[in-house]
Amino acid sequence: MEIEKIEEIYNQPLLELIYKAHSVHLQHFNKNEIQASTLINIKSGGCKEDCSYCSQSIKNNSKVKIHKLMEVTEVYALAKNAKKNGASRVCLGAAWREVRNTSDFETILEMIRTVKSFDLQVCCTLGFITKEQADRLADAGLDYYNHNIETSKENYPNIVSTHTFDDRINTLEIARNAGMSLCSGGIIGMGESIQDRLSMIHSLAQMTPPPDSIPINSLVPIEGTKLEDVNSISVWELIRTIATTRIVIPQSHIRLSAGRERLSTEGQALCFLAGANSIFLGEKLLTSPNQSVEEDREMLQILGLNMN
Ligand code: SF4
Questions:
Q1: Minimum CA distance residue for ligand 1 atom 7
Q2: What is the rounded CA–CA span in Å between residue 51 and residue 237?
Q3: How does pLDDT run across 131-158, given as a tens digit for each residue?
Q4: Domain span at residue 122?
C-alpha cells in the first residue's frame, strides 16, 4: 500500500477509523481473544548502543540496575509463574548490541528449552544475530525473534547513531530465513512527526510477510535518557496509530505495549476496539512499569476478553 493511502486512513474521522479497524479485526481474529506475553529481563543494562529512549544504554545516565545474565533456574521459576498467570508466550530480553558466541549464548539456548518445557511459546530479543546463531536459536525451539524497527527510516538517525535502520531490517531477515516468526514494531511519542509514524507502518507492511507480532509502544520517558523531557502523546494518537496499523496489516497481532499502565481501562478498551489484540502480562516490562496481573484480570473480565 502506498504511503499516501496510509495517510488517508490515518487522517479520517476518528470514530470512522476505529469502526473500520474493528471491522478488519473481526475478519481475521476471534473478537474476544487477547494474546498475553510475559517479558523477562534476562540481562539488564550496560549496553554500548546509544538508543536515546533506552535506560539500559551506557550512553544515557539512567539509574537502571545492571545485572549479568540470569540463571536458567530463575527463568524456570518466572516461566512457571507466567504460565500460571495465563500467558501463552515468554519473551526473553537481553540488553546486548549483539549475541556473542560465549557460554552466555549456550545459557540462552538452555533458557529457550526450559520455557518450551512449560508448553509456552518463546520469543527472544538479543540484538543483532548472525545466520549461524539464528539457526541455533531456531533449533533450540525459538518461536519468535523480536527486533523493533522503532521509528521511520528517516527518523532513525535522530534516535540512534551507533547502528542503522537497515541493520535492523537485515537482522529481521536473518531471523526469518532461519524459520522464526518475527516480532517487530516501534515506539511513538519520541518527538517524531505523524509522517514518521506512517512511514514506520509502511516499512512494517512492506516486509514479506509483515511481522506476525507488532508491538506498539508509547514512550515512557525515563530520567537520565535523552528523551526524558519529551511530552507524552495523547491516547488519541495512540488509538489512531493502532487502528491504522490494523487496517494496513490486518493479519498480525498488534501488542499494546509500553505506556499501557498510564491508560485508563476506557483508553485501553478503545485501543482493543481499534485492533490491538495482545498485551504484556506482568508488573514490569524491561525497565518500565506495567499494569498488575490483578488489574489486567479485572479489566479483561469487564471487557469480556479471554487470554490466549
Ligand atoms: S534499545 Fe537495545 S540496543 Fe538500544 S541501548 Fe537499549 S538495550 Fe541497547
A1: 95
A2: 23
A3: 999 999 999 999 999 999 999 999 999 9
A4: 3-300
